[in-house]
């Protein structure tokens, strides 16, 4: 055998090879729909996601519309005949219709997707089923402590703004009828600023032509749709009492700079060092050193009208105070124990690697392309990501942490058995 | 478009066995500059000793706590510095450890897996710390949530009789607190022998170079005897079983029924049951979903799958088909079960329509392809198939075998879903509104 290998040195840790981006074909239709296609031919599938701006809609109606959009048995049967699936999801920003198909059925799949987007009929019995399902779902999800804390957290941060809810109430869902859904469809299921991402075993140019054929008749809406501005940030604490609970859920959030702002790369690194991955300070401290929590985590969350640093830690009741103390101590340490070059180097490598891992699967590639598009970013922006992170210095990371990751500017919510925690 | 070539697409596997008995699978794929390294040990919660419920899972945590060469936090630090992700998961019949990372980090992943296969650090401090972490995990995923571990834990306890199959694989927190480092050493000595494991690497690498690297890092791990596999077989039920319990946090009643299925190692008998389950319940569709959630409005939701924990492949005999659903207020469970029996019977007698079967097969094929797209998932499945089917390449046969399933085989599979072969657990909601 002629192959040889060089000596192994554990402490010579290689940086990931230069980023290899997918080749993407893009087109904007006159009606406003953006098409984004990437070829990845290793499996005979195509992954699709159609994303439509849905901000400032009534959450109950949005949920019922999303649920009834693809539920009709005749539609599901047509999908299954292609080995395909479609599902829908809606949040405070967008409606997403996502799925995948065997590549050999892509043309039929796109025709069906266009039909769903443009001329969905919402039969009365599908609306009734969606309402009843939604009411039950809402009851079950509200019994989850993680949902209860999310409700309080969102309300505390955003008040009456659409971001202030964590999904519609059972009462709001029960009020929805077919006319409400049809009205919402007429106003908001429009191609303006919508995007369609397709990734898989496809010919990008031929696929763009196909999409053009099926979606060109989708007429744009006349109303300009603007999300109301988020209310001013008011830091503060809240305790949600859940008598009898055995586990406490602590959540903190602070405003963060937007993606494209100059400070964003340094702050992203600060969040990573703080609690963004297993090697972070928070996880090493409260899980590996103290055994106080299974899965403490933090990250940066970008939605259409807000960017947040989020911190989430769950702990058994007896550990609640200790965990809260350590979270605050670690936030303070981001400034008193400045981020070291080693810490920054590791955070940077992990971030670079994660992107490469995401781009190695069909679903991951589609998710990356969609996220870029929704944040108004381009593939070129992503191409420069490694360079932007390389330019960040430890001092900049510490400064960003000092400016943004401050407990005094946090909205904190703790769900727990109040009597047992505060004795 | 390209279906003719892809229909014949098979993942390649180069196979070797080291002198210490470690089985090695190399499956190159150059679509991305990423590799996955998976090590699967032939021990899971169904093979843990009767006085050690939950120990396989606790031990999995200890495998991340350093080694003779490395301190406790080193594993995460090296993998993540390579830009990679890692995890360990404990299953009924195996325990998996993996890294998925940019291909530049391949040798680091191999070193780390070999290092802990050779000599993990098993100390009092790590054990105490990880018992605390596992207690947090159990509280978060089982005890403090509505429907925690439903239907897996309560259904297994009803459907099976032996400790191996019926016990709680998380274990009880109090009992875990009594475990010792000596138990951990014995567990490692017995179950973590190289010959009781399979290593698989998928992704962007050169097989010739990788063979050298595998030999370099794993070759000198001493060989040890492999324990005999525990006998976990149990006879199928001869009489229907029913049970119930109160979930104090749950707002709505739920049920789960389990029927024993053919040995999953016998794919020709097992796969028709999988397709039959899809004909009965497939997302919002399927014969049972149509009747129970739409036409007769008895249930708020219904799911059906193979494997008591929801894992279709990667389980040994005995396993089960599990049907579970949430009851609408006022629904009598007996009425639901009567509909289940009627539909199972109808499928057993009349068989599926041709179009219905073709669609179910097509959807399943697409799902199988999708589930193997990720390098880590593919490496895991290859290891598991090597252990449980004696041949990693069997994953390439799943699509073709599913394609060949006939209406007769579906009828035969459905005919096993008899009430007398069934165990049903009902969850009574303690927090009903």
Automatic annotation (TrEMBL), chain A:
It comes from the Bacteria. Pfam families: Peptidase_M16_C. Residues 176-349 form the Peptidase M16 C-terminal domain. InterPro entries: Metalloenz_LuxS/M16 (IPR011249), MPP/UQCRC_Complex (IPR050361), Peptidase_M16_C (IPR007863). GO terms for molecular function: metal ion binding. Belongs to the peptidase M16 family. This is Putative Zn-dependent peptidase. It comes from Kutzneria buriramensis.
From TrEMBL, chain B:
GO terms for biological process: proteolysis. It holds the Pfam family Peptidase_M16_C. InterPro entries: Metalloenz_LuxS/M16, Pept_M16_N, Peptidase_M16, Peptidase_M16_C. Residues 180-363 form the Peptidase M16 C-terminal domain. One of its GO terms (molecular function) is metallopeptidase activity. Keywords: Hydrolase, Metalloprotease, Protease, Zinc. It comes from the Bacteria. SUPFAM superfamilies: LuxS/MPP-like metallohydrolase. Residues 23-139 form the Peptidase M16 N-terminal domain. Belongs to the peptidase M16 family. This is Putative Zn-dependent peptidase. It comes from Kutzneria buriramensis.
